Amino acid sequence: xxxxxxxxxxxxxxxxxxxxxxxxxxxxxxxxxxxxxxxxxxxxxxxxxxxxxxxxxxxxxxxxxxxxxxxxxxxxxxxxxxxxxxxxxxxxxxxxxxxxxxxxxxxxxxxxxxxxxxxxxxxxxxxxxxxxxxxxxxxxxxxxxxxxxxxxxxxxxxxxxxxxxxxxxxxxxxxxxxxxxxxxxxxxxxxxxxxxxxxxxxxxxxxxxxxxxxxxxxxxxxxxxxxxxxxxxxxxxxxxxxxxxxxxxxxxxxxxxxxxxxxxxxxxxxxxxxxxxxxxxxxxxxxxxxxxxxxxxxxxxxxxxxxxxxxxxxxxxxxxxxxxxxxxxxxxxxxxxxxxxxxxxxxxxxxxxxxxxxxxxxxxxxxxxxxxxxxxxxxxxxxxxxxxxxxxxxxxxxxxxxxxxxxxxxxxxxxxxxxxxxxxxxxxxxxxxxxxxxxxxxxxxxxxxxxxxxxxxxxxxxxxxxxxxxxxxxxxxxxxxxxxxxxxxxxxxxxxxxxxxxxxxxxxxxxxxxxxxxxxxxx
Length: 523
Description:
The chain has 523 residues and is an all-alpha fold. The chain has helices at residues 14-38, 41-48, 52-55, 57-80, 82-101, 106-135, 140-168, 173-176, 178-192, 206-224, 226-229, 235-254, 271-291, 293-300, 306-312, 314-331, 340-354, 363-378, 381-389, 397-427, 447-455, 464-491, 493-496; strands at 432-437, 444-446.
């Protein structure tokens, strides 16, 4: 007898919620870690006497490790079982976190972040597979709403937690905080996750791995190097992006030949999955890229502390928490094509508020914009994921969630690079202050750089009128970048228009027939 069979239709029973708790713990660790570390970059520069380009590799190395290991998750879940693989991912992530706290150089820290990423890359796709199988197709919407809480609150809670840990303790605790959470998650997983059967008969696609994993890593390396170089013509950018793209395109053509490819692109024949995946990809490029710059505006233009900048982002999380449970219930009853467009209107309206930023824009206006944006976020991301996975057969869920996670990772990296390049190029256009030099690099100092530095407490002998002009230029640079993000958000309405507007039976069942039963979960 299945645990989910005893639950009333559409309701999440205690057994499913117990499993969801394990996955949410893992998601909190992996998602919080990305944003917590982002606020620690200036501290790493000071501690390790490194440049920003060097410490940025603590983020890039983690991202590249994610991209490398995510394609393996679908095969490994079938081959070794989701419980064993999820616990291995938790162990790798926790061990990597502890090692990061012991790093004595920036090179060591980057290496340990890669190890962390190998575990973190498996947590989300395997976690989504476990939850989808546990709940069954009729309850995916509600379950995705549960998983969506850490996904949306991570970018808000991360800066707050990171700022507080660095101010109250030291940078080491940015990583050590994962140790107690990791131990609790491992013990919890051992007792809460059901035993599942491995499928050792499926062959591993070595040829596909040699094309896809290095291809994704090289492509994202080139994309991640864009903000540092400022131009796509730099050798380290276009050469690695070209080689990566060739390998990925080669994999696309190759993947239809083997019976069990590393990434099953044949799943995209499922119209729901393909439309939802494209919608999610465009949405992540638009929102995640610009969304990471919201705290930067508060930090650089308004001179707020890391902790205060994180607190100012809280309205977005509050809005998401309010609408996400409602969106989860609606996703199980109403086609997402009828609800997501309304949520996207809220996101676009809130995002528009940030195109109006200046040096003294009202915080009430900006926090209100974030709240409206959060309301839309809670009704967008998880319903789209629900649409992507609900019509897959049970045996396809692991590979389907892997495909969705890869598209998210690529989209997020591309969006972040695009917005960072636009903002950097705009800021670099600021006028140079005659006779002034950057104290760290010795290069000529621009008005915008000087204004941002003074906002952070630097003592520079620059006239107030020049600083004010530089601050206004920097604020206008942020506004221009947010206009680009707003245009991309509006572009998301195109793929969303093709999301299903009619109710379809889950897991491919024919009309009038019961949906295909999910695997039996033994406790």
